[in-house]
Design goal:
- The chain has eight helices and 16 strands.
- By secondary structure, it is α+β, with helices and mostly antiparallel strands.
- The strands form four sheets. Strands 7, 8, 9, 10, 13, 14, 15 and 16 form an eight-stranded mixed sheet that branches.
- The chain binds uracil.
- The site of uracil (URA) has 8 residues, from helix 7.
- The site of uracil has 8 residues, from helix 7.
Length: about 260
């Protein structure tokens, strides 16, 4: 059977504009399907339909998946209201497709960030039901121990919401500076999730890095640079998202120590 998709989604996927702006284009009457103006937002189209925006035929943009080693001091929004550097500035003109970040990392958080122009992929990676593990390395204030961090195993209350169980490891303790390096693996992605979780157990975060997104790390990718994911990495991520959505997989701590 022919795969039908909503017109605004197809226009956005072609890299013309965002889905919301595509809706506006449709309602203003500048979109034609097979030569006929279409103003209905619910309209479904197939790959055989000829779509024009302002008289220009659109072509499906091929999907692009990037892994960036995000540095501190840049935002993961596409445009920043304060004119700070964005991850899009780091991509510049090196990638023609209109990619955007999959989820967000704070301005002062470094590490693994995925970017794509594939909306379905992005939704799968971010959906809370998919439980993709994200591994963070946090330098926290104070001497964190198994017992001070223990509440994270079951979940802590933040803004009336109890966080999902997380896994942690104390990697090293700096007695002189009264700080601890902690690895935390979570699968939620709320605003300031890691900072709030560690603050809730009495260990405010001084420095944060996302060490891994699922099985992906930044090895071989310099800070501020990116690489394309391989086809098999994309496939494996999608497989993982499907598995994780169907059964909650336990999250495991990483073996060995890491530098930070
Ligand atoms: N949790 C945070 O607190 N900040 C991030 O950037 C990512 C996860």
């Amino acid at each position: 059977m022919e795969n039908l998709e909503r017109l605004q989604k197809v226009i956005a996927a072609a890299g013309v504009t965002s889905r919301r702006k595509a809706e506006a284009l449709i309602t203003t009457g500048v979109v034609k399907v097979n030569g006929k103006t279409v103003k209905e937002l619910g309209t479904k189209v197939s790959s055989k339909d000829k779509i024009e925006v302002n008289g220009v035929p659109i072509h499906k943009e091929s999907h692009v998946y990037l892994l960036m080693n995000k540095p501190r001091g840049c935002v993961t929004t596409v445009k920043d209201e304060f004119d700070r550097q964005t991850v899009m500035d780091l991509i510049g003109t090196k990638v023609a497709a209109r990619v955007y970040p999959v989820g967000r990392l704070d301005y002062d958080t470094a590490g693994v960030l995925l970017l794509t122009n594939d909306g379905d992929f992005a939704n799968k990676m971010m959906h809370p039901r998919t439980h993709i593990p994200k591994t963070y390395l946090a330098r926290v204030k104070g001497i964190a121990t198994k017992s001070t961090l223990k509440p994270l195993l079951k979940g802590v209350k933040i803004d009336g919401h109890v966080t999902a169980p997380a896994v942690f490891q104390v990697l090293s303790v700096d007695k002189e500076n009264q700080s601890t390096l902690v690895e935390l693996i979570i699968h939620e992605g709320r605003y300031h999730q890691v900072k709030n979780m560690l603050e809730a157990v009495g260990h405010p975060v001084k420095r944060l890095r996302r060490d891994r997104f699922a099985f992906l790390d930044v090895n071989g990718v310099a800070q501020g640079k990116f690489r394309h994911l391989t086809k098999s990495e994309v496939k494996a991520l999608l497989r993982l998202a499907d598995e994780e959505a169907s059964e909650k997989m336990p999250i495991r701590a990483t073996k060995g120590m890491r530098q930070y």
